[in-house]
Amino acid sequence: MKTINELQDEVIEEFSDFDDWMDKYQLLIDLGNEQEPLAPEYKNDQNLIEGCQSRVWLQADLVDGKVEFQAESDALIVKGIIALLIKVVSGHTPDEILDNELYFIEAIGLKDHLSPTRSNGLLAMVKQMRMYALAFKAKMA
What pTM was computed for the model? Predict the structure, then answer.
């Protein structure tokens, strides 16, 4: 299993292949489309992330001491962003999730190319994933 930082570096490399932001957006949309749809029972108010302009549902489960994330959004770009986050943090322990800074977001220039509301939504998604990790860590203690 790769570390969170190794996965972040892979994402950075993948995005560095493109100079044009239209291509990067297309890559995000493709990533979002490749993602498994979220089971209908997880599309509930409890899983909705507050602070996102579009609707984003995030489901987290603790499986063998590792946090598994699943998500869905009704907006294509946002679906891609959450797919990226899942690719990097899902399947790691709560400690790993809490101890790693997600530097890839800045490194690929995502923050600079999102509208302020999308940028806030991105921060809300990261925060929610960390909250789940924190909650699972407390449960395991």
Answer: 0.94
